[in-house]
Amino acid sequence: MDWKALVGANIRKLRVRRKLSQEQLAHDSEIDLTYLGGIERGKRNPSLLVLVRIADQLGVHPTKLLAD
After folding, report:
1. CA distance 34 to 38
2. From CA 65, how far away is CA 62, in angstroms rounded?
């Protein structure tokens, strides 16, 4: 299983569902926009702290980002 792709797809799905732009989510999560884009494309390997910050802004528990 490609975990980076799974996490990225889940972040993108939740972001779109909440009607947030990548720019807004990156800003609110205090990460760089290009870094968030890389995460969503499954190209970057975010730290646990980054995943927690993103999950917080998406209003979900961090485990939701790992759900298959």
Report:
1. 6
2. 6
Domains of the chain: 3-66 (1.10.260.40)
Nearest to 60 by CA among 25, 32, 35, 36: 25
> What is the pTM for the complete model shown?
0.95
**Among candidate residues 40, 30, 37, the one with its CA nearest the CA of residue 65:** 40
Cα dihedral: 25, 10, 40, 31 (round 10) = 30
pLDDT reported for residue 14: 98
* Residue ranges for the chain with pLDDT beneath 50: none
Q: 3-state DSSP: the chain helix, strand, coil percent, rounded to 5? A: 70, 0, 30
